[in-house]
Amino acid sequence: MTDPAPKTIPLDDKDFRDQLVAIIPPLRAFARGLCGTRDMADDMVQDAMTRAWAARQSYAAGSNFRAWMFMILRNHYYTTLRKNARMVSWDPEVAERVLVTGPTQQDGLNVQDVQAALQKLPVEQREVLLLIGANGVSYEEAADIMGCAIGTIKSRLARGRVALAALIDGPAYGEEPSAKRSRSSALSPTG
Amino acid sequence: MFQPWTKRENPATGGRGDVTSLNKSDIVSKAASMHLQEFTTMPEETAPEKRLKAVKTTAIPIDDPVGAALRRLHDEVIAEPIPEDFLRLLGEIEGKLKGAASSE
Fold first, then answer.
1. Taking the domain A13-84, which CATH number applies?
2. pLDDT tens per residue across span B21-46
């Protein structure tokens, strides 16, 4: 005979509300990175908060609230993307065009440049970069949020990081300076 | 682990003392091959039995410019005051809480 499934104990409403308040800034940061615009991101977060409040009985006290909220936000983002059919896909030609702006000093990367470059990445890479690289969540937590294996998270993170670096700084890390120069000249209007 | 500093023996001192030198090309080549590092940290909220086991987590290296830019992007939003819309939404939730409490 098997034991019945453990009963979910929901969080007290007031505690739930307090947790919701505390999670607003990281949620906004994640949404801003995903959406690229402040207004859309904030709408997305408010919708996620409303959904979370409506579903608060299904949240088990003591479980990972941050992961739960990120998951709700992420699901809402994907639903909206599907509705709007505006899924951004990786396009090497687009990436090349971004490089025309020329390499920047890596130690002084402009936040707006990074934000713009993020929007050129496939959404799967973008979200893993935002979760792990910006928000500091663990592989395990990111795997829970995104509903995939840790190995998938690791490979997306590695590919995303290289792609983002390429978008911001030109060629991927490790490329010879001569190759970098030849790419730059090939991209220049006179070259 | 990224170690830009290299220790070399100084022939001028007959190898008695080490000279720590910073080689720029070493830094560049190591930065080029920099990969994600794994750190071991203890999560804040875990079941007691899980506390015994350290959970592997990861971060983009602290000195990686891409990682630094991502964190700056994140920190800028975190530092922003919470917009009025959010406060209104929280106010509605607060109102529902009070309504529920008064009806009990």
1. 1.10.1740.10
2. 434 444 334 433 443 333 333 334 44
Whether the CB of A17 is below 8 Å from some CB of chain B: the reply is: yes
Report which secondary-structure segment, H or E, holds B19: strand B18-22
* B75, HSE (Cβ side, Cα atoms, 13 Å): 8
Q: Which residues of chain B does A132 touch, with a Cβ-Cβ cutoff of 8 Å?
A: 58-60
pLDDT reported for residue B99: 76
Distance CA B66, CA A173 (A): 11
Q: What are phi and psi of A98, to 5 degrees?
A: -65, -30
Q: According to CATH, where is 1.10.1740.10 located in chain A?
A: 13-84
Positive or negative, the Cα torsion across A158, A164, A167, A169?
negative
Q: C-alpha A160: how far from its chain's center?
A: 10
**B interface test, pick of A42, A111, A130 with most B CB neighbours within 10 Å:** A111
CB A115 within 8 A of CB A121: no
A45 touches chain B (CB under 8 A): yes
From the options 3.30.70.3270, 1.10.510.10, 3.40.50.300, 1.10.10.10, give the CATH code of A92-187.
1.10.10.10
pLDDT at A4: 55
Q: Is the ipTM of this complex over 0.90?
A: no
Q: How does strand B5-9 pair with strand B37-41?
A: unpaired
d(CA B31, CA B34): 5
